[in-house]
Amino acid sequence: MLEKQQHQTDSIDTSYVDDICMVQLSHTVSEANNNLEERTERYLKNGLYLGLTFATSKTDLLYCLPRTSRDKSKSLSSHPPLQVLGTTIPAKRQIRYLGVFIDESLMFKYHATMAACDTGVVGCNGGGGRDE
């Protein structure tokens, strides 16, 4: 996530980047992390040139592994976290991106469940509403 630093109220703000998604395909999780870290560092350094900053609190890491991968059954803590500009970004089982819950298997089961709970189709939390 990149965000523009605030300037004086009379200045014109023309640089703003929001909701960036970066994908890295590799043979191993470690290789993917190394490549993604390098790409992200370059990307963010270019953003700094424009006066943009990196908002770590709004940044997520999602590993999407093939169903047949031996790494699929490992705990998230066994996978290396992403290191970007000295900040550690831990992996999650699902993330929310532009209002859609994306899970690690890319089956969107979590999103479908949350949508059903929000509409009251499924009795989540005693007949409507979502358990958080």
Number of domains: 2
Biggest sheet features: 2 strands, antiparallel
Q: Overall 3D geometry?
A: globular
Please list the strands of the largest sheet in the order they lie side by side.
1-2
Relative strand content: 15-25%
Order of helices and strands: EHEEEEEEEH
Strands, count = 8
In whole angstroms, the N-to-C terminal distance is: 24 Å
Please work out how many helical segments DSSP would assign. 2
Could you say which structural class the secondary elements and strand pairing correspond to?
alpha+beta
Helix percent band: 10-25%
Structure description:
This protein has 132 residues and is α+β, with helices and mostly antiparallel strands. The chain has two domains: 91 residues, no CATH class; 39 residues, no CATH class. The chain is 24% helix and 18% strand. It is built from two helices and eight strands, in the order E-H-E-E-E-E-E-E-E-H. A two-stranded antiparallel ribbon has the order 1-2. The chain has a two-stranded parallel sheet with strand order 3-6. It is globular and about 50 Å long. The two termini are 24 Å apart. The C terminus is likely disordered.
